[in-house]
């Protein structure tokens, strides 16, 4: 069955690591999914499952959040926002079915329905993305709604659209001068913003703080109980967390992918470093990656991808990891 995306001209963009990014790009998020939750118990149920304060989420706001197992390991890390008649949260498609099964486990006695949305997911990026959202959805807050769907601000110059087919067609017709990019351009923006994500390869491996979820507003330490809260709270108040997510740059023959391993240099030797969360390969062979690493390493520590010789270095994060 041909999908809507396959009928459009989305292509990979040959961007060098020093090249300017397109002023406006529409990105096919065909490897992402949106889980929807609706019903009168939606907020109450999700408040007991997610790391964020769901009750405080306004109609024009979005937040990062995570869903953890009982040990505090993340099934999913995502952006949560109001959508149509309920709430919705976006994540890589590789983890959506697992997350759907896990979030439904304790919902049998609650009036709530979960589904993987049939809406089309598109990204709008670039310095003109905000103006494009104004044109499509009208001026407003960080989350905007109309008859065809929802637009949610993800990071600077980066918007997520969840729209029906009519809305998707309208986006392309209205923004007819925009670059039509494949999903790897979204990876680049997510990596530059150092946003946490869970793929199938990293499912149930890390607590929220190991992917900096607290630094991007995805963890409430004042809300009531939720699954995995004890571990998350101990990591903050007892200092048991020994890992964080960092931005690395180096050369690579291919884009690093979730689950790949970095090694760290110790003297003249190389030891296990950490796990790739996401990666991007520029057209000139330079690459970026987000990786979960020990949080006590020296700034000048060198890294390399397992099985490769090229040396990678850490870059500054766009936010602070210091406790409040």
Model description:
The chain is built from six helices and 17 strands. 16% of the residues lie in helices and 33% in strands. The longest helix has 10 residues.
Structural class given helices, strands, pairing?
alpha+beta
Taking the sheet with the most strands, its summary is: 6 strands, mixed
How many DSSP E strands?
A: 17
Q: What are the secondary-structure elements, in order, as H or E?
A: EEHEEEHEEHEEEHEHHEEEEEE
- The poorly predicted ranges are none
Amino- and carboxy-terminal Cα gap:
50 Å
The general outline is globular
> Reading side by side through the largest sheet, how are the strands ordered?
8-9-10-7-1-11
**Rg result:** 20 Å
Helix content: 10-25%
Q: Output the number of helix runs.
A: 6
Mean pLDDT metric = 97
Percent of residues in beta strands? 25-35%
List keywords for this structure.
16% helix; 6 helices; 33% strand; 6-stranded mixed β-sheet; alpha+beta; 324 residues
Compile the SSE list and pairings:
Blueprint: E1 25-28, E2 32-38, H1 42-47, E3 62-68, E4 74-83, E5 86-92, H2 96-104, E6 113-116, E7 120-125, H3 129-137, E8 143-146, E9 149-155, E10 158-163, H4 165-174, E11 179-181, H5 184-192, H6 229-237, E12 243-251, E13 261-266, E14 269-281, E15 286-294, E16 303-305, E17 313-315
Parallel strand pairs: 1-11
Antiparallel strand pairs: 1-7, 2-5, 2-6, 3-4, 4-5, 7-10, 8-9, 9-10, 12-15, 12-17, 13-14, 13-16, 14-15
């Amino acid at each position: 069955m041909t999908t809507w995306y396959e009928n459009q001209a989305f292509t990979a963009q040959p961007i060098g690591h020093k090249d300017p990014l397109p002023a406006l790009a529409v990105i096919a998020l065909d490897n992402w999914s949106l889980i929807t939750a609706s019903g009168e118990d939606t907020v109450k149920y999700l408040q007991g499952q997610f790391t964020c304060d769901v009750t405080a989420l306004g109609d024009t706001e979005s937040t990062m959040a995570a869903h953890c197992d009982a040990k505090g390991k993340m099934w999913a890390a995502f952006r949560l926002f109001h959508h149509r008649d309920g709430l919705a949260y976006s994540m890589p498609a590789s983890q959506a079915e697992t997350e759907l099964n896990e979030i439904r486990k304790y919902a049998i006695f609650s009036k709530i329905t979960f589904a993987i949305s049939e809406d089309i997911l598109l990204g709008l990026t670039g310095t003109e993305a905000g103006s494009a959202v104004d044109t499509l959805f009208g001026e407003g807050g960080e989350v905007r709604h109309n008859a065809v769907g929802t637009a949610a601000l993800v990071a600077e110059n980066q918007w997520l659209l969840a729209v029906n087919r009519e809305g998707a067609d309208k986006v392309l017709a209205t923004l007819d001068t925009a670059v039509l990019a494949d999903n790897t351009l979204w990876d680049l923006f997510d990596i530059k913003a150092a946003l946490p994500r869970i793929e199938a390869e990293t499912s149930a491996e890390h607590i929220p703080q190991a992917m900096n979820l607290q630094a991007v507003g995805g963890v409430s330490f004042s809300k009531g109980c939720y699954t995995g809260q004890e571990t998350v709270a101990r990591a903050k108040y007892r200092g048991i967390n020994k890992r964080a997510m960092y931005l690395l740059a180096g050369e690579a023959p291919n884009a690093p992918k979730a689950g790949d391993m970095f090694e760290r240099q110790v003297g003249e030797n190389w030891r296990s470093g950490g796990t790739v969360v996401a990666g991007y390969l520029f057209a000139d062979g330079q690459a970026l990656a987000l990786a979960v690493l020990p949080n006590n390493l020296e700034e000048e520590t060198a890294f390399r991808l397992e099985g490769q010789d090229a040396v990678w270095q850490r870059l500054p994060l766009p936010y602070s990891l210091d406790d409040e």
